[in-house]
Design a protein that fits this description.
Shape of chain A: elongated
Number of domains of chain A: 1
Largest sheet of chain A: none
Strand order of the largest sheet of chain C: 1-2
Strand content of chain A: under 5%
Structural class of chain A: mainly alpha
Order of helices and strands of chain A: HHHHH
Helix content of chain C: over 70%
Radius of gyration of chain A: 18 Å
Oligomer: heterotrimer
Shape of chain C: globular
Largest interface: B-C, 63 and 50 residues
Number of helices of chain C: 29
Largest sheet of chain C: 2 strands, antiparallel
Helix content of chain A: over 70%
Chains: A mainly alpha, B mainly alpha, C mainly alpha
Chain lengths: ~140, ~500, ~725
């Protein structure tokens, strides 16, 4: 779209949306939200960018290669954390017993592995959303 | 260490699905070999698990060491171990076949995607079989629906889109029904773990009967749509007509059966015999099963496309299985499980041999099958064995399952269904035999006089031969598997 | 073929002898046939201990050792099954190129089978050689050979061997003979297995495989009628198989053991179920045996199959059906020897009622067969109807033996004897028909004539066979028909007086058989005609040598009837629960050439001749039966009407099932669409109308069924 207002507003808003998304991801163990919703937010921000600025520019910012890598990275983080739990404590995805720092309940650095998993999930969801959207939009163009 | 095997299986499958895209730049053969090794490892570990469980009994796997009140639990008993072995073995054989199956419209660069989907599909199947938690099963069911839909519609043709769309729509309705049932059960019991739900339901059944009835109704029909039980089989023939042969074999041979196993778990472990008998679910299943047996064959007779015909034949055979389950006796369940195994093998053999014929001759309509028996003797022989098994001729495993089902039906004193079984066998003859006869006897006009062995790559012939041999071996020595099935059924009662 | 031994340095005398034979194989196979004949004579001699030879031989130590080895080699049934299988598979290697070697292999393998079967005699005599494989097929299969099975095995192998010799020459005029011999070998395996079966499941297994393999033989010609006949054949065969399967399931569930041992005590407690079981078994095996009303596949399958296949189909395979009825009835429904000692024991009541029904089935079959046979002009079709009629005799014999129960030994022996005799003369008759067809390419008897000049050897053979089937003394048919006649007389002496009508019909049918064969012989061989048969060459070929031995056997059995009776049938009778005094009194000292029987034969022949002359004069042999008289039409008429209605409703006026075939059915015209084809067309119409709409209305189906199921559970559930 060539609308100036949209472009300016988007340029300002997108970082805020992303920060909010990261906030939701990181506070998954403290407040409602977590990896899925936070990742959806980040994905939405990228979709907004694509809608306003066009697919080509969005692909410069977030190319297919990056999407693939981040998608795999998300799951790999999840699986690796689980395996750490498996190896150290005998069960997949074990939390405190595997030695993840428990911390004080209510603070950010607490609840063992959950923030780490949330980050992985967030990355994966965001990259999935943007990949799907790009595929759909490109189909139409073709 | 052996207790970690279930999760190692799952992680291996998931890991392979993740690693395949990384091998894009390398020669494709590398990723194929890697996949084969992973499948072999999974099969071996499943066999170990089965042996372990048969000797020492079942065990639980708690995720994160949380107890099952708040955590997710896997139950590994004879039931899950046995069927994971079956799935792993069958997928291994079908996987070997798919190495060369290139002319089905799957472009080369999509090949990697196909295997990613296949491995995630396998991952979700293992998850469903192991899981002991209602919502966890739902998650895996969703993954299975989506991957199986993707595996079917991987060809980029126009017909695939309609079929895939219908498949997705029906599956989503079914998943939603299942979720509604889960929600209702959670509402009244407050648990999601199968065993806790079962104990809780026993005590509150008189109080919340409406809830339980609606839950059972929706869950049964939801899973029934996915399992292609008679009136809900609508998506199956279209899906088969447009899918590559490998996917058809996996869909009809394995995926549909997994949903039947979910149904079995629900009815036997969650709701229990008391509720099931009070609500006369037996009659619903018996009627749906017999209707499926007859109507499936009736529709199959009229088909012109061989894959659609095989799809409707699957519907009929699933009717047999539902009939066996609907008897709610041990003999019935044993017959049904044996038929799950034997139909899986037979259907896979049929689809794979049809696939070879399509690969070689690029034909799919029934009337193009004339005289093919001389050009492709091995594939048509295996096809004939599969067809004979479907009809129920002795020496094939199909006969054994018919025999056991007949005994189970007589045991439950329902002779009427015995007549329906026989009738359905006769109907099967009407549409299978003409194909075999026209393939071997009628002369094709372009046929050469001297039969030559088909120029089909060996890697596609070996799985077909293995399946054909398996049909006959199971037909001669069914007790190899029946003994295990007896202990499997014992865990459900 | 003659060039093969021009290169051979055979001595002059031998070459002169060989020149008279058509080819080398004729010479070899004639030697083999002679060997078989001598072996048979020696075999019988050894059994009867002629001249004290057996005792002398037993004293020679290594022969005695050999004898002991044979007598204890229990795996012989498996070896016997394996040999034709190996032969069938290896003859593919020779194929069309080395056809004489292939035929030699086939002939040799059947020859070997005969010898191996002969060695099983000591074990069969002692009451049973039994092998079991407990884990196979779920509940285990097994083989058991007693004298009943042994007799049928022996005659099967001899006839199969001779038909193989015959087929060598005959198949020179057909193509794709490798495929033919392959499926013939596997049919042989199935037949042998079915006879040697020790329990019902094994018999069922081999029975089904026999149906499937013999289907390929019927369809061999690949003409349009062959496909239709084959379709009819395999459908009826599979329906029979399913009926037997039902009976197996019911038996297994209620009795727990399918072996052929007495189960009447448990069966009696089941009430009406035992009649259902027997009915299913009789119908199931009866379809294969050509019993009316389910005999309709027989007259269709025989004319289209090549002659060796027809000879075996009529000679052996339908006997397996009768064998099945006999085996199951006398094993499951007879009490064990110790349990009963008198005729009036109430345990016989079950089998009595079953026997009565089977007697009537047999009578109907006999009458239907002979009546329709008289109407035919195609030689093979006429012979097929005669097979139906003669199977009626056998079924009658089985029925009599069941009806009389404890005193049923006469009927039993009559049935077995007639199985042997019919196998011999019917295969011989088919071979004769095949020879006629081979030389003249004409299958209609009204178009032939005067062949005795060109084919004198064949004419003599045909005369022997016709005398055999008519029951003339000094030929084998006389013996079995007398036994059966005595059986019927006993039936109405000891039982219901109603069976007197059965005897009258028996005599009439025998007269009809005589008449029919007079007719055939006259029209084919004797009648003067202007047709020119100069192209027929008179060489001694395999066809003739094979037919020769069977004719000799027919005459020998006719002249020495006690041979078969005493050595083979009596031991079997003693094994089964028949009254020993009865056996001693009536069967051991049976006099066959009594004046009563001879006068009966004279009466039958007289009636037959009268019938023939009256029939030719009044044109009784060309009756145009009303169009609706066909059995199938009557049976399927409601189904046809319903299907036409459905079709018309679903597709409007353009229904593809045409009107004409439903109105007018011509017995000779096979152009109507059969039941299966109509069924397929109706299904297609059904599918066309409904499938697309079902697929489109998925949501409606879902909501409809959810509501139905929930309503069902709410209304009928008990909480």
């Amino acid at each position: 779209m060539n609308d100036t207002i949209l472009k300016s507003i988007t340029r300002i808003i997108v970082p805020f949306i992303q920060v909010y998304g990261v906030f939701i991801i990181l506070h998954g163990h403290l407040s409602p939200g977590g990896g899925f919703s936070g990742g959806a937010l980040i994905g939405t921000s990228l979709i907004l960018f694509t809608l306003v600025f066009g697919v080509k520019k969005a692909k410069v910012k977030f190319s297919e290669r990056v999407a693939e890598i981040s998608g795999s990275a998300g799951i790999i983080i999840y699986v690796l954390v689980g395996i750490v739990g498996l190896v150290l404590a005998g069960s997949f995805l074990t939390n405190i017993e595997a030695g993840f720092p428990a911390g004080v309940a209510g603070t950010l650095m607490s609840a063992g592995m959950i923030p780490i998993i949330m980050i992985g999930i967030g990355i994966k969801v965001a990259s999935t959303m943007i990949t799907l959207f790009h595929t759909l939009v490109e189909e139409e163009v073709r | 260490m052996i207790e970690q095997l279930p999760i190692i299986n799952l992680l291996l499958l998931l890991g392979t699905a993740l690693i395949i895209p990384l091998f894009k730049k390398r020669p494709f053969q590398l990723s194929l070999t890697l996949c084969f090794l992973v499948l072999l490892t999974v099969l071996v570990s499943s066999v170990f698990l089965l042996i372990h469980v048969l000797e020492y009994g079942e065990f639980y796997y708690h995720f994160g060491n949380h107890e099952n009140l708040i955590g997710i639990e896997f139950l590994i008993d004879a039931f899950s171990a046995f069927f994971t072995v079956f799935v792993a073995a069958l997928v291994l054989v079908i996987y070997l076949y798919s190495w060369k199956d290139k002319t089905e419209g799957i472009e080369n660069k999509e090949f990697g995607r196909y295997y990613i989907l296949l491995f995630i599909l396998l991952f979700s199947i293992f998850g469903i079989l192991y899981s002991n938690d209602l919502f966890n099963t739902y998650v895996f069911i969703e993954i299975l629906s989506i991957t199986s839909c993707a595996i079917i519609s991987i060809k980029r043709k126009k017909e695939t889109y309609t079929a895939a769309f219908r498949y997705v729509m029906l599956n989503e309705i079914a998943s939603m029904s299942y979720l509604l049932g889960v929600a209702l059960i959670y509402m009244i019991t407050g648990h999601l773990n199968l065993e806790r739900v079962a104990t809780s339901l026993q005590s509150i059944w008189p109080l919340y009967s409406t809830n339980i009835i609606i839950a059972i109704g929706f869950m049964t029909i939801g899973v029934g749509i996915k399992a292609a039980i008679f009136p809900f089989h609508i998506w199956l023939p279209d899906a088969h007509a447009t899918a590559p042969s490998t996917s058809s074999a996996i869909l009809s041979g394995i995926v549909v059966k997994i949903y039947i196993l979910v149904l079995v778990k629900l009815l036997f472990r969650v709701f229990g015999m008391e509720i099931v008998e009070a609500l006369h679910i037996k009659w619903i299943m018996l009627i749906l099963g017999s209707a499926g047996m007859i109507m499936g064959s009736i529709f199959a007779i009229a088909q012109k496309d061989v894959k659609r015909m095989l799809g409707y034949s699957s519907v009929a055979q699933i009717g047999y299985i539902i009939l066996g389950i609907g008897l709610f006796t041990e003999a019935g369940l044993q017959a049904a499980f044996f038929h799950i195994i034997s139909h899986g093998i037979m259907k896979a053999a049929l689809f794979l041999s049809v696939g070879v014929i399509i690969y070689y001759k690029h034909v799919q309509k029934l009337k193009d099958f004339e005289g093919i028996g001389y050009q492709m003797p091995i594939s048509m022989t295996v096809f004939s064995f599969g067809a004979l098994g479907m009809v129920g001729i002795p020496l094939t495993s199909g006969f054994i399952s018919k025999f056991n089902l007949g005994i189970a039906v007589i045991d439950a004193n329902l002779i009427f269904f015995l007549i329906i079984i026989i009738l359905s066998g006769l109907l099967n003859v009407v549409y299978y035999f003409p194909i075999v006869i026209s393939a071997f006897l009628k002369d094709n006009k372009e046929m050469q006089k001297i039969p030559h062995i088909e120029k089909v790559p060996n890697i596609m012939l070996i799985p077909i031969l293995t399946l054909g041999v398996a049909i006959v071996v199971l037909g001669l020595f069914p007790n190899l598997i029946m003994d295990i099935i007896v202990s499997v059924v014992a865990t459900l009662f | 073929m003659k060039s093969i031994f021009k290169n051979n340095a055979a001595p002059v005398i031998k070459r002169h002898m060989i020149d008279r034979f058509q080819d080398r194989i004729t010479y070899t196979s004639s030697k083999l046939i002679l060997t078989i004949f001598l072996l048979l004579v020696a075999f019988i001699g050894l059994i009867k201990n002629v001249f004290g030879l057996t005792d002398y031989l037993k004293n020679v130590s290594f022969i005695y050792q050999f004898y002991l080895d044979i007598a204890h080699f229990i795996w012989m049934p498996l070896v016997i099954l394996a040999i034709p299988m190996i032969g069938g598979l290896s003859q593919i290697a020779f194929g069309q190129r080395a056809s004489s070697r292939r035929d030699r292999l086939v002939i040799f393998m059947t020859f070997l089978t005969i010898i191996l079967i002969m060695t099983m005699y000591p074990q069969a005599l002692s009451g049973g050689l039994e092998i079991r494989f407990p884990e196979v097929l779920g509940i285990g299969i097994g083989f058991r050979i007693d004298m009943l099975g042994y007799i049928v095995l022996l005659i099967t192998s001899i006839i199969w061997f001779l038909v193989m010799v015959y087929a060598h020459e005959y198949m020179k005029k057909e193509n794709k003979s490798t495929r033919f011999f392959f499926f013939l070998a596997f049919t042989y395996v199935s037949v042998l297995g079915a006879i040697m079966a020790g329990d019902l499941l094994t018999m069922f297994l081999f029975f089904e495989s026999m149906t499937i393999f013999s289907y390929m033989l019927v369809i061999h010609g690949q003409a349009e009628e062959a496909y239709k006949a084959g379709q009819n054949y395999i459908f009826m065969g599979l329906i029979g198989g399913f009926l037997i399967l039902c009976a197996i399931l019911l038996l297994y569930f209620n009795i727990g053991d399918l072996r052929f041992v007495s189960a009447i005590t448990k069966l009696d407690g089941l009430g009406n179920l035992k009649y259902w079981i027997m009915g299913l078994l009789v119908l199931g095996f009866g379809i294969k045996a050509g019993m009316a009303p389910v005999h309709v596949w027989l007259p269709r399958a025989h004319p289209v199959a090549p002659t060796p296949a027809s000879a075996l189909l009529s000679g052996i395979m339908i006997k397996v059906g009768a064998f099945g009825i006999l085996r199951t009835a006398t094993s499951y429904f007879f009490p064990s020897k110790e349990a009963v000692s008198s005729y009036a024991d109430p345990i016989w009541l079950t089998i009595e009622s079953i026997g009565a029904i089977i007697i009537w089935f047999g009578i109907i079959t006999m009458v239907v067969g002979v009546f329709l046979a008289l109407q035919q002009s195609n030689i093979k079709r006429m012979l097929a109807y005669h097979s139906v009629s003669q199977m009626g005799y056998i079924v009658l014999g089985i029925g009599v033996s069941l009806y009389l129960g404890y005193k049923g030994a006469m009927g039993y022996s009559g049935a077995i004897y007639h199985i042997i005799n019919h196998a011999l003369f019917k295969s011989l008759l088919f071979m004769v028909a095949g020879v006629v067809f081979y030389h003249t390419h004409e299958a209609d008897m009204y178009k032939l004539g005067g062949l005795w000049k060109k084919l004198p050897f064949t004419a003599i053979i045909c005369l022997i066979a016709a005398l055999g089937i008519s029951g003339i003394p000094l030929f084998n048919g006389f013996i079995s028909k007398s036994l059966l006649h005595h059986g019927i007389v006993e039936a109405y002496t000891y039982g219901d007086k109603m069976f007197f009508f059965a005897e009258i019909l028996f005599i009439l049918v025998s007269a009809g058989t005589v008449c029919s064969f007079i007719k055939m012989y006259y029209y084919v061989f004797i009648r003067k005609t202007d047709r020119n048969y100069d192209h027929i060459k008179r060489e001694f070929s395999c066809l003739d040598s094979a037919m020769g031995l069977i004719a000799i056997l027919i005459v020998i059995i006719g002249v020495f009837p006690k041979l078969l009776l005493n050595e083979f049938i009596l031991p079997q009778l003693r094994l089964i629960t028949f009254d020993p005094d009865f056996i001693e009194h009536y069967i051991v000292d049976a006099h066959f050439f009594t004046s009563e029987d001879l006068w009966m034969t004279v009466l039958v022949v007289f009636l037959g001749v009268v019938l023939f002359f009256a029939g030719s004069k009044f044109h009784w042999f060309h009756i145009k039966l009303p169009r609706w008289f066909s059995l199938e039409y009557l049976f399927f008429l409601p189904a046809f009407i319903i299907m036409r209605l459905i079709c018309r409703y679903l597709r409007g006026d353009r229904c593809p099932i045409e009107y004409s075939s439903y109105n007018l059915l011509n017995l000779k015209n096979d152009n109507q669409t059969g039941f299966v084809d109509r069924f397929v067309i109706t299904m297609k119409a059904f599918n066309l109308r409904f499938e697309a709409s079902i697929i489109k209305s998925d949501a409606l189906i879902y909501t409809g069924f959810i509501t139905l199921v929930l309503l069902f559970m709410f209304i009928f559930g008990r909480f």
